[in-house]
C-alpha cells in the first residue's frame, strides 16, 4: 500500500471503532498511541464503562515495550450508538465474527456517516464481498485484518472486495500511514491468507494435545524453536481468544468444506468451560494480572 502524507491540508483521519472487545480495544490502543483520536462505540454498558481502563493498561504495556509513538496521546471518546461516529473518515468494525451482526452494524453506520467515509471490517475469516453484498454502499467496504496486539505487530492484511472503490482504499491508506502500519493486499476469500493458514494449524496443534501426543508447552516449543513461529500456535490461540478462534474456524469450515477447519473437541471444551485464553485468565496457559 502506498504512503500518504498527513499534512495540514490532509490532516490525521478521524477514526471510529465499533466494538470494545479484544480487537476493538487493541486497535484503539494503537490509534491513540500514534496520535489518532478515536470514537469507540460499544452497546454493552459494562464493556463501554470498562474500556478506558483496559486501554490505559494496554497503552502502558506498549510504552514499556518501547513501541509507542512519541506523539502526544490522542483523545478517546466512548459512545453507545453508531450515530456517535457520524463525523468519522474511517469506521472500523471489530465485533463478533458473525456475518449477520457485522452487516447489521455496518448498515447502521452507513446511514449516519458521510458519503466519503470508508468502512472497514476487521473480520478474520468472512469474505469482504459476502459482507459488502448486504450493505447500501458496497463500494465503501474493505477488510483490514489487524493482528493482536495491534500496537506490537506492524503489518496488516488488506482485502479489497470486487466493488471496493479507489476512494475507500485511499482513505484507509491515509489511516494506515497515520497508524504507522504497512498494508499487504491479498485476494478476497474465506480466511484470506493469515487465518486460512494459521487457524487450521492451531486446530491441528490442539488435536495433537487432545490425542495426548504432546503438551501445549511442547507443541509451542517445537514450533517456535524448530520452525520459527514467534510464540507457538497454542499461545497464539490464547492471544486471539479461543472463543474467537472457534468462531473463525466455523466460518472457514462452512465456507470451504475443509474438514481440517472443523473445530476440534479440545477447543470446544475450552470454550464451554470459559477458558478463552489470555482475556479470561486461562486457556492453554494460565495468566495472572492480564485479564482484559
TrEMBL record:
Domain 3-hydroxyacyl-CoA dehydrogenase C-terminal: 191-287
Residues spanning the signal sequence: none
Key words of the record: Oxidoreductase
Residues in 3-hydroxyacyl-CoA dehydrogenase NAD binding domain copies: 15-188
Similarity comment text for this entry: Belongs to the 3-hydroxyacyl-CoA dehydrogenase family.
Lineage top rank: taxon: Bacteria
Biological pathway: Lipid metabolism; butanoate metabolism
Name of this protein: 3-hydroxyacyl-CoA dehydrogenase
